[in-house]
Amino acid sequence: MTQPSERALVPFVSVDHMMQFIHLIGVEPMLRELADYIEADFRRWESFDKTPRVASHSEVGVIELMPTSDGEAYGFKYVNGHPKNTKEGLQTVTAFGLLADVATGYPTLLTEMTLLTAMRTAATSAMVAKYLAPKGADTMAMIGNGAQSEFQTLAMKAVCGLKTVRLYDIDPAATEKCARNLAGQGVNVVKCRTAEEAIEGAQIITTCTADKQYATILTDNMVGAGVHINAIGGDCPGKTELHRDILLRSDIFVEYPPQTRIEGEIQQLDPDHPVIEMWQVITGAAQGRTSDRQITLFDSVGFAIEDFSALRYVRDRIRGTGLYQELDMLADPDDPRDLFGMLLRSKTASAA
To answer: InterPro entries per the record (predicted)?
Structure first.
């Protein structure tokens, strides 16, 4: 059988290789580096193709494609969100992604993105908090202690200097899991019995729950002046976490308004309710935190450019590590007009 040419081979990063890659760099250094890549792409936000993700909703979850391009590289992520999966011993979110060369259309990277999405989501939260959280913020309430909670905590530590995390989940086993995983990570961990207890003394409040419904994780009276709310749960039509009155008291920051108005907390508000795009804060075109009493709310739903940043990061940093496989993904005949001849010759080669 003839061997594939170099052009036919695409680097593939498996889950096992991704875990080795993260350990090679270190969790916190990689979170910092990812945050830098994401911030750099937010600074050139206007150079990207942008579209709300293509979503296929069902009664039990959602399957989505998230594409974008900067004109030189094209990337997309396949991702699902099925809250009921945990009861069946499955992940709520799984994902994979691809990067390709715009000039040829040839893929240049295929990678798992379940772990990578957790890392990039946390890195995005921390990058935004760097701009919006109160000065000197060192305590975070983490409400929802599922698969994202440790990543969020360590990203806030790595990028923003977080010292204490106060944990709460309606499932005490989730809180125990999170506290156990964060032991020895250099963060003071406080396990709380209620959401109200968790937010005591916290300057940053992160909500990350997965029920596919309108929910009220935070009520208006729970949120005092001067805090930064990092609302990363929700993320689909008909699912929210915050009481509407909190939104009305907050300055709201988003990634891409056409997507956030469909999926984010602001789906509860009028379609023309004012929001601030985060790329404008980063470039100085808009203001972020302006006072000590201001409530800032990052209505995060995740956007394709953040995944593009993560794919770009892996492509750049994986070189020389050996932590990937070369997949024979692309038909590459000697004569590009003779694909059928390539097929015929393969039969002859197999018989030899």
So the answer is: NAD(P)-bd_dom_sf, ODC_Mu_crystall, ODC_N
Name the DSSP class of 269.
Answer: S
Give me the catalytic one of 138, 169, 235, 307.
235
**CB-CB neighbours of 63 under 10 Å:** 15
235 is known as an active-site residue? yes
- CATH code for the domain in which residue 286 is found: 3.40.50.720
Supply 14's token pair. 């498996």
pLDDT tens digits, residue range 105-160? 999 999 999 999 999 999 999 999 999 999 999 999 999 999 999 999 999 999 99
Rounded-to-integer distance, Cα 345 and Cα 226, Å: 70
Q: What is the pLDDT of residues 249-301, one digit of tens each?
A: 999 999 999 999 988 899 999 999 999 999 999 999 999 999 999 999 999 99
**Run of H or E residues at 283:** helix 278-283
How high is the pLDDT of residue 222? Answer: 82
Q: What is the total count of domains within the chain?
A: 2
Give the helix ranges, DSSP H, for 45-166: 114-132, 149-160
Take residue 261 and report the two structure tokens written for it.
């108005």
pLDDT in tens, 182-223: 999 999 999 999 999 999 999 999 999 866 555 677 777 788
**261 and 333 housed in the same domain:** no
Q: Are strands 139-143 and 204-207 parallel, antiparallel or unpaired?
A: parallel
Give the integer Cα–Cα distance in Å for 151 and 78: 21
Closest CA to 144 of 266, 289, 244, 241: 241
From 42, 104, 39, 111, select the one nearest 73 (Cα to Cα).
Answer: 104
Structural domain includes residue 281: yes
24: tokens are: 């090679």
Distances from the Cα of 162 to the Cα of 83, 137, 188, 248, angstroms = 29, 7, 9, 27
Q: Residue 36 carries which side chain, given as an amino acid letter?
A: D
List Cα–Cα distances, 99 to 54, 103, 167, 310, in angstroms: 18, 12, 36, 10
pTM above 0.85, yes or no: yes
Q: How far is CA 163 from CA 24, 111, 185, in A?
A: 24, 33, 10
